Amino acid sequence: MARCRASVRSSFPHSPRPQRSAQRTHEEESPMVKVHLPDGSTKELSNGATAADVIREIGPGLAKRAIAAKVNGRIVDLNTPLEGEVELVAIKPEDEDGLYVTRHSCAHVMAEAICSLWPQTKLVYGPPVENGFYYDIDLDHSLTPEDFEAIEKKMAEIIAED
Question: What residue ranges define each of the domains in the chain, with the CATH number in brackets?
Answer without folding.
Answer: 32-91 (3.10.20.30), 96-161 (3.30.980.10)
